[in-house]
Each structure stands twice: as structure tokens, then as C-alpha cells.
Amino acid sequence: MSGAEQAVRAKALALLRADAVLAAMVHGIFDGVPPRASAPYVTVAAAEGSDWGTKDRAGREVRVTLMLTGAGAVADNSAAARIESAVAALRGPADGWSIVAARPVRTRLTLPREGGWRYEWVARCRCLAG
Predict the structure, then answer these.
(1) Phi and psi angles of residue 114, each rounded to the nearest 5 degrees, phi first
(2) Model's pTM, two decimal places?
(3) Distances in Å between the alpha carbon of 124 and those of 16, 21, 22, 29, 48?
């Protein structure tokens, strides 16, 4: 994993953890899938990168997955809306990188066999070094 992927994941985690309203709605906001957690909870999951550089500047396009996992019937959208607004807030400096564009490119609601539900967002972040 390059520095851009790590920077995007760290910024996403920091933004979500700084949201006091979201924190009050869930039992935790985790870096990766927690070994034991009771739903609802938020996870900053996979980050995948590819080259997005220019002639004179290193760049990466990073796709980061954010997940909201819940139990029982599908809940209202208030926690989901908070997470989606965090995607837009990803723009800006991030640990030696500049996130110049951030937007959701895929969303999905799944109903796993073991019960509950999961909202997933894949956010595309275009980053330039420096």
C-alpha cells in the first residue's frame, strides 16, 4: 500500500471519529473490521490505489470503502447520511498528499445471510503528492 492509500484511510477514519453525532448513533468507528463489535458500527475498510500522476507530480487515485453495519431491520438513513457527508469532507491535505477530488462512485446495501444489514460506500479520491 502506498502512502496515498494510508493517508486517505487515516483521514477518513479521523473525520468519522470526529463526528460526535455519528459517534452517538453507533457503537464504534473502526479501522478495519473489528473482531468483536455489536451493531451498529462503522468501518473504514479496503483502500485500492492506481496511478494518477502528471508529468511533474506524483499522484494516486485511491478508492476507499466505508461501511455501516447494523442489526435487525434496515435503520433510517441518518447515520448513513453522516457517513456520506464525510466523503465530501475528505478533500484537502492528508499526510503529505493533497486530496483534490473526493466523491462516492458506488453505494450498496446488502443483507448478509447471518442477518442484519450493511451499507457500503466506495469513495474515489484523487490525490497529488506534496
Answers:
(1) -75, 0
(2) 0.92
(3) 17, 24, 22, 20, 9
With contact defined as beta carbons under 8 Å apart, do 66 and 123 qualify? yes
> Could you give the C-alpha distances from 48 to 10, 57, 120, in angstroms and in order?
14, 20, 15
Provide the sign of the torsion angle of the four alpha carbons 122, 125, 126, 129, taken in this order: negative
| Residue 85: all three cell numbers together | 457527508
Residue 36 cell numbers, joined: 468483536
Give residue-wise pLDDT tens across range 48-76.
999 999 999 999 999 999 999 998 877 66
Q: Which residues neighbour 10 within 8 Å (Cβ) at sequence distance 6 or greater?
A: 94, 95
Half-sphere exposure of 74 (CA within 13 A, CB side): 10
Backbone phi, then psi, for 77, in 5-degree steps? Answer: -90, 5
Report the pLDDT value the prediction gives residue 74, as an integer from 0 to 100.
78
DSSP, collapsed to helix, strand or coil, labels residue 23 as helix
Q: Position of cell 496515498?
A: 4
- Its CATH class, for the domain covering 3-129, is alpha beta
